[in-house]
Amino acid sequence: MQKLEIGEQIETQVVAVSDTTIFLDLNSKSEGVLDRAEFSDENIPKEGDKIKVFFLGTQNGEARFTTKISGQNADKSMIENAFNSGIPVEGVVEKEIKGGYEIKIGTTRAFCPYSQMGGKRNSSLENSAEENFVGRHLVFKIQEYKNEGKNIVVSNRAILQEQRAQGILDLQARIAVGQSVTGKITALHDYGAFVDIGGFQALLPISEISYERVQDIESVLRVGQEITVQVIKADWNAERVSLSLKALQENPWNAAGAKYDEGTKVDGTISRVADFGVFVNLEPGIDGLVHVSELNQKQGTNLRKVFKVGEKMSVVVKSVDSQEKRISLALASSREQDFATAQYLSGNANSEDGETYNPFAALLKK
């Protein structure tokens, strides 16, 4: 293995774990060592895991490594070395002071501005409460080291941004457009839901929830719900991923061409009224258009005053274009009118009272 410079970062493999030490593969006759105390019990790396570490130097013939400078390692010389080498340092947020926070790194005090504490706020998440940092053990990157360590400025945000960038790279390697993933809903908005997939907030637009029009997102989804979705778009540079729930559902348009032959009569419900016509919902996920020229209205009529969303409308299919997801409709007589007409044209010309059946008179009697 080539000679390492102090502060140099490498990725290596864990070869063994003891009660106090993690042994690292250096591709040489010797092994590197890492203090096990740097990890919490639930995050101890296992044999075979790959981890990124910083070279601290050689002591008693052993190559020593760290994931961060902390505790007894955090004397003034090590902090200066951490600054020069870009090694993260662990500190305790002692108190809030003017412009930021006072941080204690070992026995040394540093300053972290408000702007460098915590991650970038995510407006997609509904928890807007101010986070309390005082008393917490956090990892920082030293941004300034002046006056022999009397003036030290650190950033927690820089560490979080590096972790996020690495997380996105890891996610990019695991997730591709067209792939199905499972995530948990973290927030609901009028325009869609944010879903946590591997620590990344991806957007499920409201139009991609179902083939059926969703009016109230909270009626179909809830925060904390675990869902399986398909990745339909990924712009990793802009850190934007779009998801679809309906992509994993049966597309009703696949059978529309065979189901709605020309001349088929359907009783639907008005779903939307536009200046150029009325949209009629024939079944969940399928709307057709009755063009204004088919509505028997005078030119210039305000269609929104005549037709209301939710009203029933009997229509007849004129044409279907399944690829473009379009169905052209025309007004049709209602089933009640059809029944009256059929009865009039049948052999039962006389009613129960002996009078000749008149469909229009029958309708007026109701």
Straight-line N-to-C gap: 97 Å
Q: What composes the largest sheet?
A: 5 strands, mixed, barrel
Share of helix, binned: 10-25%
Strand order of the largest sheet: 1-2-3-5-4
Q: What is the helix tally? A: 6
Number of strands: 20
- Poorly predicted ranges (pLDDT <50, ≥5 residues)? 123-129
Mean pLDDT: 85
CA-based gyration radius: 34 Å
- Overall morphology: elongated
Category by helix and strand content: mainly beta
Order of helices and strands: EEEEEHEEEEEHEEEEEHEEEHEEHH
Percentage of residues in DSSP E strands: 35-45%
Which features does this protein show?
6 helices, five-stranded mixed beta barrel, 366 residues, 20 strands, 15% helix, elongated
Verbal overview:
The structure is a single chain. This protein has 366 residues and is mainly β. Strand 11 and strand 12 form a beta hairpin. The strands form four sheets. It has a five-stranded mixed beta barrel with strand order 1-2-3-5-4. Helix 5 packs across helix 6. About 2% of the residues have low confidence. The radius of gyration is 34 Å and the shape is elongated. The protein has six helices and 20 strands. The longest helix is centred in the middle third of the chain and has 18 residues.
